[in-house]
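Hi Y.,

Following your request, here is the sequence exactly as I used it, all 752 residues.
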Amino acid sequence: MNSVVPEKASSLNQVINQNDNLSFNTEEVIDIGQYWRTIKRAKWGIIVITLCSLMVGAFIASSSVPLYKASSKILADPQKPAADRNEQYIATALVFLYYETQYEIIKSRNIAEVVVERLNLVEKYKKEQKKIKSIKRSGLSESIKEFKSEISILFASDSTKKETPKILSDSEIKVMLASGIQANVEVSGGKQSQIINISYTSHDPKEAADIINAISEAYIQFGLESRLGDVKNTESWLSEQYAQLKQKLQDSESKLSAYRSQQGLVDTEQQQRLANSQLQSLNSELIRAQTNLSSAEEQFLAVKNVEPGSQEFYSLGPVLQNRTANDLVKNVGLLIQRVNELFERYGEKHPKMIAVRSELKSARDSLQNEVNKVVENIEKNYKLAQFQVTNIEKLIAKSRNDIQSLQTENFSLVSLEREVENNRRIYENFQVSLMETSGKSEYNSSNVHIIDQATVPKSPFKPNKKLIIILAGMFGLFLGVVLAFVREALDNTFKTPDAVEERLKLAALGITPVVKINKKTAIPEKQYLDDSLSPFAESINTIRTGLLFSNIDNPPKTILVTSATGSEGKSTMAMNLAAAYSNLGKTLLLEVDLRKPSVAKNLGITNKLGLTDLISGTVSSASEILYKDNDDKLNVITCGTVVRNPLELLSSKKFEEVLASLQTHYEYIVLDGPPTLPVSDSCILANKVDGVVFAVKAEDTRIKVAKEAVTRLQKLHANIIGAVLTVAEPHKMSYYGDHYYSGEYYGTKPEK
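Below is the corresponding structure, written out as tokens. Let me know if you'd prefer a different format.
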């Protein structure tokens, strides 16, 4: 009976390996169509979620309070204004720091509080609160609530009474309103240009414009007050220091004047000037005297080196420069010439000759006397020059000593004069700074100017109702798609035969479609018997064909139908499969689910005896418990009397003998077995039949549960021919792939 098992197993393994290779080759391919089919399967859920989101978005858009935004533009120059301002380079980092600082100033609480004061927002807030209270008090329900709150306050504890709201003071209201203004102010710009954009958001358009204009004016006023305040503080400090320095200068001048009067001195500057002038004159005279001494020394040395009576005296410069000596030299020369002439003419002893010689001698004596005078004069001039140089050097040394002694004697005077000079210099500098600061205090120009004042906005910028609705719809659509994919990822049930093959590694024999029960159709268990041409019957025929071709040479004769758990459509499939086999030959439907039998009830069999009675010996022959149908080709043996030990009964040799006896009388036997996981009956029966058909309920059976059941059967070496997807809906399976066909019977049905 089981000799065909190895051949079947080998052929099924080939099919499984082919399916594994096919799934492996297509696993890395991204199937976009699969995503689209997932969306189609969940289209109604996506539509519902999208509609709900649109409704929520429409409600939010309609119930949202409209907000208005007013804005203004301000020109802010990083350089502070001044009457004598020179254009200076400012580093980029400092410019950025300047504008960041201005942003914080504009959004500061000080500016916000100034705005509150200018617009008198505290009084407006009080009036609004009074209106709100009056409106609340006018309603009966609010009166009852106030009465209850007053009663609760009377009977409340001290800690509860402390929590009652207190009335805010004007200063607290001012701080609260200023905080609200700070929260709604937006400042930007100032990086690529000197323009600062200020905007404010409010539910009242006029209030938004008024607050923005008030912020701009308060910011400009703050800058002026800050700058002028600094200038005033500087001017005040300079004035105080100026007065102190003036008094200090006067005191030092008084001390200097008193000291001069007491010592009878003039100022050291005048003394120094006179001493320097005198010393400069002496130095000039010394240079002149030294020059004269050098010239006289040259003449003296020249005269000193000439022997007395030598003719070289006549060639000396002083002698030549002496007119008398020069005339005498010329006269001597003329007389010598005349002596020579008379000597040639008259001789030595001629009276004229004697007279001329006497005259020549007299002239030479006069010349010698004159030369001697010149020499004596040179000596006198040389000694005079030496005396003058020595005398001038003494005077210079004395002047220097006098200057040094003057400096030593006038040390106190110099100190007093220096103190006066320092005090005067500091006093004059402070005087200049004070005049400059006074000029700045009168210059009230600002480096901030309003370019565009805020105007009352005509339409709100929030909420954008169309955008909210569109975003809500997009969010709902996105959420619906995400939930669809999440649901698909979390859903671990079987939906198609392909999923059965892929997950369980079993051949998919076919499906059993859902049967819609009505008055015209039979129950699912009798569908094949009632209408063998229906789509359901064709699905059973497909399963039967798969079983027959699982082993062409030796098709299985005894087939066990089981599932992982109960209520998976195995009994329905077993009954209809037995009916399908009855068209091929004599077939027996044997109910071996001894724990929860259902065949007798579904087929309307009234005989209470069955398989358990035959095994236990209560019934001696199978003919006593047979139910015959379909021209005696389909016989049914039900469970019979429910026993306490079904596992032992199915494991007994008696059951094997009964099954062997039945195989001799029937060509095909279909066993309706119990589920595999709750009990072990199917594990015992799986090794007593030719093959096992595993039923998997579509969109119900968990993949992990089915795998566990198949693994349990395979460990016991059961021949699992294939699996069947039960209670399947073909039109839903079409969402999982285009190759799934959903239709009616093809052809013309014969007349009854």
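The radius of gyration is 68 Å.

Thanks again,
Q.
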